[in-house]
Amino acid sequence: MFHYYTFINDELHRQDSMQVSTQWIHLEAPDPHEISELIADYQLPRDYVTAILDDAENSRCEQLKQPHFAKQPALVLVQFPRKVAKNQYETYPLSIIFTHTPLVITVSKFPPILFDTCTTDQVPFFVNSPEVHWKISFPILWCLSHSFNLYLKEIKLQLQQIEQQIKVSTENQQLYYMLESQKSLVLIESATKNNLETLMIFSKSEPIKESDLLANYMQDILIETKQSVSSASIHLRLIDQINNTFSAIVSNNLNNVMKFLTSLTLVLTIPTIIGGIYGMNVTLPFEDSKIAFWLIALITASLCITAITILKKKNLL
Question: Where are the transmembrane segments (predicted)?
Answer without folding.
Answer: 260-279, 291-311
